[in-house]
Amino acid sequence: MTAVLSLEHVDVDLGRRPVLRDVDLHVEDRQLVGLVGPNGAGKTTLLRAVLGLVRTRQGRIMVADRPVRPGRSPIGYVPQRHAFTWDFPVSVQDAVMTGLARRIGLFRRPGVEHWRAVGDALERVRMTDLRRRPVAELSGGQRQRVLVARALVLRPRVLLLDEPFTGLDMPTQEVLGELFTALARENAVVMATHDLASAVHTCDRLALLNRTVVAFGRPGDLRDRRVWMEAFGVSERSPLLASIGIDGGVPAERGA
Ligand SMILES: Nc1ncnc2c1ncn2[C@@H]1O[C@H](COP(=O)(O)OP(=O)(O)OP(=O)(O)O)[C@@H](O)[C@H]1O
């Protein structure tokens, strides 16, 4: 199968400092890929490079067989929840409609087809019943769903999620993980996360990033503790290894 998102030999510098080096990553349709690595590994920079928001020094990024173009490639981006203003007096459906603002254009009102796209997106994240509720009244998990719906209104081929589990309790993480699994039946999904247990449990593939892709594979195949130690810069006594079942156990996972 061909990749819907591919990065080949990608280098990115920020402020003249090397941040990403020789990154290779290939994501197929209907794959849920977890992008994991320590603080400063370059996860956000990689997502921003895929969005065309930072310049690559060299290498190639292709989305749906075309070089990435900022704002034009079929990519849905779900920012971290704190990056969105939640105390603004708008309803769930209006917040989701902002995902179409660029397409609708300045000073034009949304048409029937735009409201249909909003309705479809809300249905996919199971928020139809709450569509008229002010966003200020939503829980963290519901807010995450609104942001996902806002990305889905553009009907992207690739969905990028930036730290979707941060600050959410385990039951909410589990329900969201199921949602992302369902979305990955129709889209390629790339999720940057610090939540290793959820990533191992939810994702089809993991990319271990530390300035470059240290390892890529099914969670169940990434059992060599040395690659985790190298990617995260931890010792073999680190609780990180135990938390993902590498320490003697076998990680539970989806789709092994
Ligand atoms: N605008 C910038 N100018 C220079 N360096 C930057 C800039 N933005 C980020 N960096 C550096 O690039 C590196 C990668 O940062 P990035 O935010 O991509 O990592 P991350 O894996 O997302 O980290 P975290 O998990 O902490 O969010 C860090 O060393 C950071 O200090």
Automatic annotation (TrEMBL):
Q: Which domain of life is it from?
A: Bacteria
Among InterPro entries, the record links this protein to: AAA+_ATPase (IPR003593), ABC_transporter-like_ATP-bd (IPR003439), ABC_transporter-like_CS (IPR017871), ABC_trspt_anch-rpt_ATP-bd (IPR022508), Metal_Ion_Import_ABC (IPR050153), P-loop_NTPase (IPR027417)
Question: Which is an annotated GO molecular function term of this record?
Answer: ATP binding
Ranges of residues in domain ABC transporter: 5-236
Entry keyword annotation includes Transport: yes
Q: Which SUPFAM superfamilies match?
A: P-loop containing nucleoside triphosphate hydrolases
Coiled-coil spans are none
Which CDD domains does this entry report, sorted A to Z?
Answer: ABC_Metallic_Cations
Gene3D superfamilies, A to Z: P-loop containing nucleotide triphosphate hydrolases
Query: Pfam families recorded for this chain?
Result: ABC_tran (PF00005)
Q: List UniProt keywords, sorted A-Z.
A: ATP-binding, Nucleotide-binding, Transport
PANTHER family per record: IRON TRANSPORT SYSTEM ATP-BINDING PROTEIN HI_0361-RELATED, METAL TRANSPORT SYSTEM ATP-BINDING PROTEIN TM_0124-RELATED
Q: Which family does it belong to?
A: Belongs to the ABC transporter superfamily.
Put simply, this protein is called: Anchored repeat-type ABC transporter ATP-binding subunit
